[in-house]
Specification:
By secondary structure, this protein is of the alpha/beta class. It has one domain: NAD(P)-binding Rossmann-like Domain (Rossmann fold, 3-Layer(aba) Sandwich). Helix content is about 50%, strand content about 15%. The protein is built from eleven helices and seven strands. It has a seven-stranded parallel beta sheet with strand order 3-2-1-4-5-6-7, with helices on both faces. The longest helix is centred in the middle third of the chain and has 29 residues. It is globular, with a radius of gyration of 20 Å. The termini are far apart. It comes from Acanthopleuribacter pedis.
Length: about 290
């Protein structure tokens, strides 16, 4: 049975916390029918209380994604937007990070996201409209040491989004990329905790320790509502921009990376992380 005919329907992944949770609440306030998806369905009581609908999705499990899409289409008869927000950051020196962990990060941040996109596109093409919104990162346009694998997944997402935009435009489907900067969320603390645990004996501690401090500094960053507001603006636009960046730090760092030659960007990174050749050789870590 189709519910609330005429209301637009959005599916938001990674909805149990942080940016995803904020997007669900924002789109509910905008009058959309909102499905929040995550593995931790038990963490979405607040969203259900706000009128959202919780569905289980593990983006590394094809069956769970197919079942969720089938459930939504059966209940609503339409799916107007997919917000691909699920993802995580696994930090560490490229020499240290196990290849299995690197593969898992690509499975979650890239392949799972694209598989879910494949599953919703037939309904959007049939309707002649729809929006695929990919939550990338300013890290999809810049890079930092110790975040190489994470940045690689977001750079891949940027390219896939551009290619997809051109492919689906003739069917009336839009593709939009959101590039958040530093945002308060459990994501950064979890990433810092994992980094501290896995690199405590690393020869790259001169870089991992500053990165851990940077990640923990996200506690004083802008709230996730900043990104939720940006998503709402993009979904409401008749002709949305290809990319949106928020808050200001994302706009600043992406612009600086574009302006700076490689050698200058590397010098800025070394300075900001307190690294010099002398500090490494003096620590016996080479």
């Amino acid at each position: 049975m189709v519910e609330q005919a005429g209301k637009k329907v959005v599916l938001v992944t990674g909805a149990s916390a942080g940016i995803g949770q904020a997007i669900v609440l924002k789109m509910r306030s905008e009058g959309w029918i909102v499905y929040g998806a995550a593995r931790r369905v038990n963490k979405m009581d607040e969203l259900v209380a706000a009128g959202a609908k919780a569905v289980f999705i593990d983006v590394t499990d094809d069956a769970s994604m197919a079942a969720a899409v089938e459930t939504i289409l059966a209940a609503e008869g339409r799916l107007d937007a997919l917000v691909n927000n699920a993802g995580y950051g696994s930090y560490g020196a490229l020499e240290d990070v196990p290849i299995d962990e690197a593969r898992r990060q690509f499975e979650v941040n890239v392949f799972g996201l694209m598989r879910l996109t494949q599953l919703v596109l037939p309904a959007m093409r049939a309707a002649g409209s729809g929006t695929i919104m990919n939550i990338s990162s300013m890290g999809g346009r810049i890079w930092m040491p110790i975040g190489g694998w994470y940045h690689a997944t977001k750079h891949a997402l940027e390219v896939l989004s551009d290619a997809l935009r051109v492919e689906v435009q003739p069917f009336g489907v839009k593709v939009v990329v959101i590039q958040p900067g530093a945002i308060q969320s459990e994501w950064s603390d979890i990433s810092a905790d994992n980094l501290d645990t896995t690199t405590k004996n690393s020869v790259y501690r001169f870089l991992t320790e500053p990165m851990s401090r940077i990640l923990r500094g996200y506690a004083s960053a802008k709230p996730p509502g900043v990104i939720a507001d940006t998503v709402a603006v993009a979904l409401a636009a008749k002709n949305p921009r290809r990319r949106y960046r928020a808050p200001f730090d994302a706009k600043l760092y992406v612009r600086l990376h574009w302006l700076f030659p490689d050698w200058l960007w590397e010098r800025v990174l070394r300075s900001s992380m307190g690294w010099t050749t002398k500090s490494v050789t003096g620590s016996g870590q080479v």
